[in-house]
Specification:
Mean pLDDT: 87
Helix content: 25-40%
Number of strands: 10
Length: about 210
């Protein structure tokens, strides 16, 4: 099996906004992947729990060199210098452990009222542009949603904030390094997996 490497970040503020900080880290990765589209970097959340996305994030890749470039991004260096982040070294992933998947599920947003209003307004504009009457169709059944957590993002082009809805899937059958632009799997096209890493208390236990 091909060796994989990782580094992890732990958020140090006592009452850290994990949703916000996870989003900031994913934004840095998103920009990095635009410059290195074939890096094959996947994201893991070692402290993921029932009620929180966790106080840490990790980046995994078979390419050690690209992780060494990513870890030296100015934002990470600044946050570490200000003692807001703690970073591990880039290290090899232990062989033992199961394979998991963190998936960005864009369908979740469609279940919320604000998103429904935006979709209706968009459909209305499209109908008007075609010169057709607008006939909205009411949804007659609910949608069951499995547990998820969010990362708060901000568009650099518009300044608007949006959420990435992320779900964890255990027991992935085989290793896959096909990730979307945020280092996450998607429901259809990208089915990347990452090794299950121990929690941050273990990952950072050897640091001085």
């Amino acid at each position: 099996m091909v060796s994989r490497y990782y580094f992890a970040i732990r958020y140090l503020p006592k009452n850290a906004d994990c949703t916000l900080l996870a989003g900031r880290c994913l934004s840095i990765l998103h920009g990095f992947l635009r410059r290195h589209p074939f890096a094959g970097i996947g994201v893991s959340f070692p402290d993921w729990g029932e009620n929180t996305i966790g106080v840490s994030i990790a980046f995994v890749s078979a390419e050690k060199a690209v992780l060494r470039q990513l870890i030296h991004q100015p934002y990470f260096a600044m946050m570490a210098s200000d003692r807001l982040f703690e970073l591990t070294e880039v290290a090899e992933v232990p062989e033992a452990g199961s394979e998991i998947r963190f998936t960005r599920n864009q369908g979740i947003a469609k279940c919320f009222a604000g998103e429904k209003r935006r979709r209706l307004a968009r459909a209305k504009r499209r109908a008007a542009s075609r010169g057709e009457p607008f006939r909205p169709v009411a949804e007659t059944h609910g949608r069951e949603i499995t547990p998820f957590h969010c990362a708060l993002m901000e568009s650099k082009s518009t300044g608007q904030q949006y959420l990435l809805h992320i779900q964890r899937e255990d027991g992935a059958s085989q290793v896959c390094d096909d990730f979307g632009g945020y280092g996450l799997a998607t429901n259809c096209h990208h089915r990347g997996t990452v090794p299950e890493l121990p929690g941050s208390n273990t990952l950072f236990s050897t640091l001085i």
